[in-house]
């Protein structure tokens, strides 16, 4: 069994310059130009203080799905009906990294019944040929998919399916065929599709970060490899690609740093690569706390209500430099951990005597990717009720800090900060500097969805970038049906289709052959539709509502 599949090995992220010279070849899986996976032996049980023996940024983070068309609302239909432009994504690729795709759905078939899908890398199926240099999963190319489609039982030949439906929905919003009966069309129905079906996170990393067993989630290393697969496929075919990233993670510094953010930020500055990322749906989830302390004794406590559905979870506290904070945790029974001071590498376990609650605190003085302090708190079997967290600045001066709970379905709505803030709730990698980070609005009322993540980043970067329709968008669903989805994942999918339109105009039609995703982002920012009553950019709408028709109108002046 490959170590990337073996539960006895952690998949840790290491910079290529510091990989151990003594590591065997099968201990390392290359990911990209900057980083590789080092497979570290775990054994039969989980050591919760493994975080502390290795640096925190070595551990892959956990991603969840951005919950899931009004084409006319974004100016898309106007461009499609313009006889001069007629941009439908011809010659471009849409990259999907998600829960897979229903390849038999009519939304992804040509008129002759053949597939529009270039290839699928299913990371969950291990009995077929893996794509070159990846070492796990099975790759299905267009020939094998077409062979399956001609057979009486396609799944006996190409058994990849989308059990969840999220990937199928996202792919169809970006690039599904027109279906007048169901009042549906994707943005670029002539684009090809490259799809990665992600395997779920390893059980060992779920145990380490206290993720419940029944939750669908994915680990960063598989996503990074999936992105590389999309890029290599586009390079091999010599075609521009627009990638839709409809997953997110809240346990990070919300500063655009980290392995995923850095890699995507690098890629989008290269020619022929566009990346649209969801802003997340954490805006009204009450999972973010912020405070600015300006008075002695330069300490504060904040409260977290823990519901009875949550039996394990993690949270993070990120002070803004130059503050250096201590942390004390008080349970609803009145028991306390006492004050825990910051260290470079230390894990402090604590078992409460009046309950079965267990707690691990890593008060990390220097989180290497960002250079900031990070306090990781993991709680198992928490007592229901109000938990108190006391922070104090060792420097005895003004300070500010943020705290975040996990995103998506990693935690229930019954656990929340009593004095929460909706700002700075964009999920990773949406805070990366150059990514096209998309929030969602209700196209019927022109109001931002209350659940949409808000900016700015923790370090003040303008996020989100743009807003796109994301309320009850019609989309393909498994088994040939259609459904509707709401959220920033749907908005990001629509934007990725718009990016493909621009790639067709620029690259395929030769108007701007070396265009980058960053160029496209800047063009869309300038062409965005704005409300005269608001100031732009802002932390809710970014630069405004995406409108590709405005963009092409401005180019024709």
Write the layout of secondary structure elements.
Layout: E1 9-15, E2 28-30, E3 35-41, H1 50-53, E4 62-65, H2 76-80, E5 93-98, E6 117-122, E7 138-141, H3 142-150, H4 154-157, H5 166-175, E8 192-197, H6 203-208, E9 218-219, H7 220-237, E10 241-245, E11 247-248, H8 259-267, E12 273-278, E13 288-293, E14 299-306, E15 312-319, E16 325-330, E17 348-351, E18 358-367, E19 372-380, E20 385-393, E21 399-404, E22 416-417, E23 436-442, E24 447-448, E25 466-469, E26 473-477, E27 481-485, H9 488-508, H10 517-527, H11 548-555
Helix pairs in contact: 5-9, 7-8, 10-11
Cα end-to-end separation: 60 Å
Count of individual helical segments? 11
Assign the CATH architecture of the largest domain: 3-Layer(aba) Sandwich
CATH topology of the largest domain: Rossmann fold
> In the CATH hierarchy, what is the class of the largest domain?
Alpha Beta
Q: Quick one: overall form? A: globular
Relevant CATH superfamily of the largest domain: Peptidase S8/S53 domain
Tell me the major beta sheet. Answer: 9 strands, mixed
Low-confidence regions: none
Organism: Blautia liquoris
Domain Peptidase S8/S53: 89-204, 420-544
Keywords: Hydrolase, Protease, Serine protease
Family: Belongs to the peptidase S8 family.
